[in-house]
Every structure is written in C-alpha cells, then in structure tokens.
C-alpha cells in the first residue's frame, strides 16, 4: 500500500516530498486546495483538527506535523540509514536536531522578523543570535549534523534553513549557505523540487 501525503507544493508539505524521495517507498500525493479553503472542510478537519497540511497516511496510521512525519518515516522505512537505531549513540543528537528546527529555529526567526518583544531567558527558543551560532557550529565541519552521517535530521533542519533563507528570515552565514548547497545537490531533493514545480505549473499556482 502506497503512502499518502495530503499536499500542496507551496506549503511545508513540499519538504515531505523530499523525505519520501529519500526513503524510496511508493507514495501518492493528494492535492489540498488551500486557496479555496479545502483544508478547513470536514474531510480534512477529520485528518488534522488544526486544519493544516502536511498530513501523512500509512495504512491506518495518520501523522501530522512535519518533524513528526520525518521521524516516523525514517524509523519505519529507513532505520539505520536515515534514523539511528534506538541504542545508537547518535540517536540523542538525531532527535535533538529533528525538533530543534520547529521548536527553536522557526520560533526564533519568526520572533526576529516580526519584531516580537520577548525575554530570551524566558522563551523556550532563546535568543536569535544564539540560534544562528548553534546552527553554524552544528554544520561545521559537517558535512551533516551527525558528521559524516546523513539523516532525516538534515532534511528537517535543512528544509527550515532553506525556507528561512528564501524569505530572508535567517542570516546567510558561510556555514549555513554551504550546508544548504550540499543539501541542494541531493538527488532526492532535486526530484522533490521537480515534482513540486510540476504541480505548481500544472495547476497554475502562484499566478496573479
């Protein structure tokens, strides 16, 4: 049975296509027309009460939240390759980076770009400058977050870095630019970018 991804190519679901290409399992993309509000309809609300995408279905299993989808896919279909085993010493750092992206990087970048007043000592995501320094250190010397070992954590963090760079929400430091360039050379990302771009073109998305 193919994995099913409820998807829009101009949303976080685009990075899940990259994940699916990396694990190498058959999958189906089901387009959700967010411009018309399809995600707020009863059918999709039943899949995710937050009325967001992506949502992944794997038989009777349903997973939402991009990082959770990534960890699920890596553990289920690429354990030992894209996800360290439970007793592997790399498992702790792997989990740390998988959840650093949505809980720390995204929040710090949003706070900075939106000029939110907050106390870094009280906020769970801390100071923006510390986030950038931590990312720089994490990918130096690299090439990946776990050193020579590429993992789902690189997809989750890398997708966030690439998105934030695209919208000028994260500093383009030399280590992060080099890291993004290494990721962009991944065949799975090249394939995912083409699939997302083809859907954008086919459906006339992004046109005024």
Helix segment tally: 8
Strand content: 5-15%
CATH class of the largest domain: Mainly Alpha
| Percent of residues in helices | 40-55%
| CATH architecture field of the largest domain | Up-down Bundle
Averaging pLDDT over every residue, what do you get?
97
Described by the principal axes of the CA atoms, the overall outline is globular
Would you write up a description of this structure?
A 4-stranded mixed beta sheet has the order 2-1-3-4, covered by helices on one side. It starts with a strand and ends in a 6-residue tail after the last helix. The chain has helices spanning 13-23, 42-47, 66-77, 91-114, 128-138, 152-166, 174-184, 187-202; strands spanning 3-7, 27-31, 55-58, 61-64. The protein is globular and about 40 Å long. 51% of the residues lie in helices and 9% in strands. With 208 residues, the protein is of the alpha+beta class. Helix 1 (13-23) packs across helix 8 (187-202), helix 3 (66-77) runs antiparallel to helix 4 and helix 3 (66-77) packs antiparallel against helix 6 (152-166).
């Amino acid at each position: 049975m193919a994995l099913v991804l409820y998807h829009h190519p101009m949303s976080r679901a685009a990075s899940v296509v990259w994940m699916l290409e990396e694990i190498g399992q058959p999958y189906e993309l089901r387009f959700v027309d967010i411009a018309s509000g399809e995600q707020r309809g009863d059918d999709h609300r039943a899949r995710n009460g937050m009325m967001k995408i992506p949502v992944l279905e794997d038989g009777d299993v349903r997973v939402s939240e991009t990082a959770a989808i990534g960890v699920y896919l890596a553990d289920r279909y690429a354990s030992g390759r894209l996800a360290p085993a439970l007793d592997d010493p790399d498992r702790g750092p792997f989990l740390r980076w998988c959840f650093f992206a949505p809980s720390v990087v995204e929040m710090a970048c949003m706070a900075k770009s939106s000029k939110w007043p907050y106390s870094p000592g009280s906020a769970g995501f801390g100071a923006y400058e510390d986030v950038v320094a931590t990312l720089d250190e994490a990918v130096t010397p690299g090439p990946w977050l776990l050193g020579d070992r590429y993992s789902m954590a690189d997809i989750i963090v890398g997708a966030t870095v690439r998105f934030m760079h695209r919208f000028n929400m994260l500093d383009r430091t030399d280590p992060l630019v080099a890291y993004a360039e290494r990721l962009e050379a991944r065949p799975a990302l090249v394939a995912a970018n083409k699939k997302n771009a083809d859907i954008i073109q086919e459906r006339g998305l992004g046109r005024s």
